[in-house]
Design goal:
By secondary structure, the chain is α/β, with parallel strands linked by helices. The protein has five helices and seven strands; from the N terminus they run αβαββββαβαβα.
Amino acid sequence: MTIENPSREEIGAILKKAKRIAVVGLSNKSDRTSYQVSAVMQKAGYEIIPVNPSIDEALGVKAVASLKDINGHVDIVNVFRRSEQLLDVAKEFDEIDADVFWAQLGLENQEAYDFLKEKGYTVVMDRCIKVEHSLTK
């Protein structure tokens, strides 16, 4: 199936409902896009959970090595990994209690999309969560 994102209205509803965002590939370097986007979302009131085995913390929050290390429900898994890595992240996403799989701007993977949609998940690809959030205010 072709990658088809939720409508702008549906994305707005997702962002209004969400509280916890796990960010896969979040860097602890302030010049990185993952850091800048996540900092804006944290400032907007979202709980950010850094998912990166290479760092101890980001944005003042202790990092976890994988999605499976997160306790409790996750509303959105926001992914900053190369497109070819999205299927592996999607498979891990399927093993946790999360609602929405979100691949950042420039990231798409048809196989990951099909895998998640066949399981009934909401999937957003090739969209910046910060930009979408600014459009829903």
